[in-house]
Structures are given as structure tokens and as C-alpha cells.
Specification:
Largest sheet: 6 strands, parallel
CATH architecture of the largest domain: 3-Layer(aba) Sandwich
CATH class of the largest domain: Alpha Beta
Strand order of the largest sheet: 3-2-1-4-5-6
Strand content: 15-25%
Shape: elongated
Length: about 400
């Protein structure tokens, strides 16, 4: 086993939105149970690779936990952490006996290293990689050669759930069924239903002409806001049904046959299974490269703001299209409201109580993804606050106590 320390640590920082600390890093002592559960009880060696010179306290902890240590030099070509792992895997492969059974497990997100592993360890019986699966390379050709595991969900190396904002392996389960089959809300337990639940139906808006319609989804925004509403990381059962969201957008489209040009923007690379599912539904997926120097920078929102300045969307080229953006950031509202008024409809879909005040952006119609788009199978625990101009004191007191 080899662990690419900088790769795991750097990606963890992107997941939690800040540099990891002792309380948010993996508990590496839990690794042994994961290895034995997935690879059997045979003896194994584990090498932790990170940058020289290394912190003495952490190295002592690793050594006392049974790890060997290798130090990479970021300033010397061929001596990076990934290079050291590549070299040692190749050395093990060359030294393997013909009748010897052995496996390789690597903790990394380095795309070049992962792509090389089947060749470097072609004598191994099994090659496995673990990390944050949403940051694994989008390479379907590797799925038959490498077993991929999630560092949190499969290896269970963290003491408490991480605030992950990107889609994971199990997100694909939302779309495994035929999208033409009857819609079944993901929050409803199937055994509680006597018959399939009919899909929500939306009445088409009356058209005053023909316009193209663009739906642009800020994937990071909906994950963040939904996570705060739920008080935990969203999962496949609590995320929106993206097919229903697209149907809702079609109901508001003035284009021919209700056609919608749907774009789902998210942090790169994004999970391959989820991106394929989006494509099957009718979305175009657009990964946005994060800013490693500023983990909290809203790069997806900035990308969408840039798109809203395109000549096609602003009406400088052809007929100005109707635009619906799923997002909550004020910069997005500024960019949307800055589009010249050519009579087109501008909409923001999401959780209106988390959007800027309506009076600040009167041109933008605010639509509710839960109440208008009916994208969830059960009511979300949303807090709207008490309207002091319109509330029943007795009812409110009874609700509180």
C-alpha cells in the first residue's frame, strides 16, 4: 500500500473548503481494518509518501502506527511523491515471483499515476485506488482494471461526516432507472407506496413568441444551500430529481416544442457516473477547475457569470433567449440583471429565502425548486422565519412549546 499524502491532503482541503487540520484529516489507524476487509488477512506493508522534510511529530505517529515513510522532493525532477510511488510499484512488479499472489492499493488522485498503475503492476492480482471518488479521473477504460474506493464512505477513515459538496459514487443511483418510467420521489420509501407515484406535471406557460431557453445549474450552490437546510451532507435520497427540474424548465420554455438548452456546471473533474447520467437526461456537463490557492473561491458561480455575458445570452447575436439559472449568489444576480432588457424572461431557481431580496433585482423572477419545480419527494426542513406583520401568537406559541 502506498499513500500519496499531498494528493489526499490537498483534495481534502478542496472538499472542506479550508486547509485540513488534525481534527479533519483521516484517522490513518483505521486503514488496517479497511485493508483486511477488502484484501484479506494476509500481511501487508504501507508506505506514506509526503514532502521533505516532513513534520517530526507526524512521522513519529506514522511509524508508531506501522507505516514506512518516503519523502519526496518537489524541487527535483522525478522525485515527486507520485514519482516515488510509481518507481516503487514498478520495482515490486519486477521483483514479483511467478507464483506469488499480491495486490497494490494506492491512495491518490494523481491522474497520471492512476492511469499508469495497470501497466506498472501488470503482475499484480488486483489494483485498487482510494480517495475522494468525485475527484477521480473520468476514465471509463480504467474501471475494468482498477477497483476504486471512497476514502470516507468505503474506507471510513474520518471521525465525523465531511461537508462534501460534490456528487459521489452513489449519486448515480438516482438515475439508474429508465427516465421514461414513472417518477418515484427519492425521499419516499418504496415499500410505503401501494402504487407508483405519478410524475409531477407542469402546465406550459402561454407563449408570446418564440425564444430559445437556457437552463444553467450551479451544482456547487445547490449542494451548499441544501446541505445547510438539511444540516448534513446531501445524499442521493435528498438531492433534487434533475429530470424533474428539466421538465419544469421545459414547461416555461417558449422555444419550439419546449426545448431547453440545459447546462450543469460543477467543480472539476466531477464523478463520471453522474456526468453520464446528466447527459442521458439532456444536460450538458461543464466541469470548472478550482483555484487551489483559494479553496473558498466560488469558481462555478464566476464561470456562470462569465457565460451570462456571452453575446448569445445578452441578445447581441440573434433573439435574446429566456434564461433560468439555478443558484443563489449575489454575483450571479448582478450578472443576470445586467443583461440588456429585450423582453426576455430571467429566472432564478433555488431556495428564495436564501437569495438576495427580491426588490433588489425586480427583473429576476425567483422560483422555488421545492414548491414550484417539485424536485423533492418529501418536504425539506426549511426555516422561513416569522413574519411579524402576519402571524397568530397562539399558534406560534403552541408550535414553539
Amino acid at each position: 500500500m502506498f499513500i500519496d499524502g499531498p494528493s489526499i491532503d490537498g483534495t481534502l482541503g478542496r472538499v472542506i473548503g479550508q486547509p485540513p487540520g488534525p481534527d479533519t484529516r483521516p484517522d490513518w489507524r483505521r486503514l488496517e481494518s479497511f485493508v483486511k476487509q477488502n484484501c484479506g488477512p494476509a500481511p501487508y506493508t504501507a508506505t506514506f509518501v509526503f514532502w521533505a522534510p516532513g513534520q517530526q511529530g507526524f512521522m513519529h505517529f506514522l511509524q508508531s502506527s506501522g507505516f514506512m515513510i518516503a519523502l519526496g522532493d518537489r524541487f527535483v525532477p522525478g522525485q515527486s511523491c507520485a514519482d516515488l510511488i510509481r518507481e516503487r510499484v514498478a520495482r515490486l512488479n519486477d521483483a514479483a515471483l511467478a507464483d506469488q499472489e499480491w495486490q497494490i492499493i494506492v491512495g491518490t488522485h494523481n491522474e497520471d499515476l492512476i492511469a499508469d498503475l495497470p501497466r506498472l503492476a501488470d503482475q499484480a492480482d488486483r489494483v485498487s485506488v482510494f480517495g475522494f471518488t468525485e475527484f477521480m479521473p473520468d476514465a471509463p477504460e480504467l474501471e475494468d482494471q482498477i477497483d476504486f474506493y471512497d476514502i470516507e464512505d468505503d474506507a471510513q477513515l474520518f471521525r465525523s461526516p465531511l461537508p462534501r459538496v460534490e456528487f459521489e459514487d452513489d449519486a448515480e443511483a438516482l438515475f439508474e432507472a429508465d427516465t421514461s418510467a414513472p417518477f418515484q420521489p427519492p425521499l419516499v420509501e418504496p415499500q410505503a407506496l401501494e402504487q407508483p407515484v405519478a410524475p409531477p406535471t407542469f402546465q406550459r406557460l402561454e407563449s408570446d413568441g418564440v425564444r430559445d431557453f437556457y437552463l444553467i445549474v450551479d451544482g456547487r450552490s445547490i449542494e451548499k444551500e441544501l446541505g445547510e437546510i438539511l444540516g448534513e451532507k446531501p445524499n442521493p435520497g435528498t438531492r433534487p430529481d434533475w429530470g424533474t427540474v428539466l421538465d419544469f424548465a421545459r414547461s416555461r420554455s417558449q422555444s419550439v416544442d419546449g426545448d431547453v438548452r440545459a447546462l450543469f456546471a460543477h467543480i472539476a473533474p466531477g464523478h463520471a457516473g453522474f456526468r453520464r447520467a446528466l447527459k442521458d437526461l439532456g444536460y450538458t456537463s461543464s466541469p470548472v477547475r478550482p483555484d487551489d490557492s483559494q479553496p473558498m473561491r466560488p469558481v462555478v458561480e464566476e464561470f456562470i457569470c462569465g457565460l451570462l455575458g456571452a453575446k448569445t445570452l445578452s441578445g447581441e447575436i440573434g433573439e435574446a433567449p429566456d434564461i433560468m439559472v439555478l443558484g443563489h449568489g449575489p454575483a450571479m444576480f448582478e450578472a443576470l440583471s445586467s443583461i440588456p432588457d429585450h423582453g426576455q424572461r430571467l429566472c432564478a431557481l433555488g431556495f428564495p429565502e436564501r437569495m438576495p431580496p427580491l426588490e433588489f433585482y425586480p427583473r429576476i423572477e425567483q422560483l422555488d425548486i421545492e414548491r414550484d419545480a417539485q424536485a423533492f419527494g418529501a418536504e425539506l426542513p426549511r426555516e422561513f422565519g416569522v413574519d411579524v406583520d402576519d402571524f397568530d401568537p397562539d399558534e406560534e406559541l403552541a408550535r414553539l412549546f
